[in-house]
Amino acid sequence: MSLQVNDLVVEIRGKRVLDGVSFEVADGQRLGLIGESGSGKSLTALAVLGLLPEGATAHGSIRWNGTEVLGMPDRDHAALRGDEIGMIFQEPRTALNPIRTVGRQIAEAVRIHERIGRREARQRAVAEAARVHLPEPQSIVGRYPHQLSGGQRQRVAIAMALACRPRLLIADEPTTALDVTIQAEVLRLLLSLVAEHGMSLVFITHDLAVLSQVATHGVVLDEGRVVESAPIETLLGEPSSPVTRALLRDATATLWRPDGSAS
C-alpha cells in the first residue's frame, strides 16, 4: 500500500475543517477525491504534501510506504515532494511563476532532487516538454507562462509534476479552466503517462462525469467528512449518500472516453 490516510483531522484557528478522513491508495491505483467546493478535497492533498496553510494543525495518520509523514520535519517532507509524490495544482495560470521561463520551471524539481547542472537541466526540460506533446519543445521552454495557451500551461504543469517520475501523482482539478475539447486531450495525456510509468493517482474534482473517466474508486467528501467510498461503478449506479446523488445529478461535463468520443 503506497498511501494510507487514517482518521485525518485538520483544524484552522480552532475550526475543524477535516474530520476523520480515511482512505488508501494502492500501488498503481487511480483514486478520486470528489466533492463540492469547500468539502476538503484540496486540503486533504495539502496535508499529504505537508503544505497546510499557516495556522493549521493536523492529527491522525498519513503513511507513505509505511513511513509516517504527518508531523515529519519540513526538510524531509520537501524531499518527498516532486520526487516521490508529484502535484498538479488547480490553476496553472497562478501555479506557474510568471517571471520564469517554463523550461526553468519544468527542470526545477530535477535540479533539486537529482543535482544536475543547467545545461543538462535544459535538455531534460526539452525532453519533458516533448513528452507532454508541447509544440516545438526546443523553443517553447524559453517562453513565459503568459505566452502559452491554457492547454499548453496545463501540459507544462503536468511536465513539472512528472519530471522526477514520482510514484504517486496528485492532480487537483487539473482541467477545470479548460474547454471540453482541451480537457479531453489533457486527460488522455495524463492517463497515458500515469499508465506508462505505473504511477498511483489521486484525482481531485467536483465533477463525477470527469471522475468516472479517470478513477477506479471514489471517495466522496462533504464538509470535511467522508460520506461515501466505493468503486466508481457503484457511485454512478447505486450511490448510497444524498451528497453523491446530488453530484451525479449535477454532473454537467461532457462524458469523455479514452478513445476521444463523447456522450
From TrEMBL:
<keyword id="KW-0472">Membrane</keyword>
<keyword id="KW-1003">Cell membrane</keyword>
<comment type="similarity">
    <text>Belongs to the ABC transporter superfamily.</text>
</comment>
<dbReference type="InterPro" id="IPR027417">
    <property type="entry name" value="P-loop_NTPase"/>
</dbReference>
<dbReference type="InterPro" id="IPR017871">
    <property type="entry name" value="ABC_transporter-like_CS"/>
</dbReference>
<keyword id="KW-0067">ATP-binding</keyword>
<dbReference type="InterPro" id="IPR003593">
    <property type="entry name" value="AAA+_ATPase"/>
</dbReference>
<dbReference type="InterPro" id="IPR050388">
    <property type="entry name" value="ABC_Ni/Peptide_Import"/>
</dbReference>
<feature type="domain" description="ABC transporter">
    <location>
        <begin position="3"/>
        <end position="248"/>
    </location>
</feature>
<keyword id="KW-0813">Transport</keyword>
<dbReference type="Pfam" id="PF00005">
    <property type="entry name" value="ABC_tran"/>
</dbReference>
<dbReference type="GO" id="GO:0005524">
    <property type="term" value="F:ATP binding"/>
</dbReference>
<keyword id="KW-0547">Nucleotide-binding</keyword>
<protein>
    <submittedName>
        <fullName>ABC transporter ATP-binding protein</fullName>
    </submittedName>
</protein>
<dbReference type="InterPro" id="IPR003439">
    <property type="entry name" value="ABC_transporter-like_ATP-bd"/>
</dbReference>
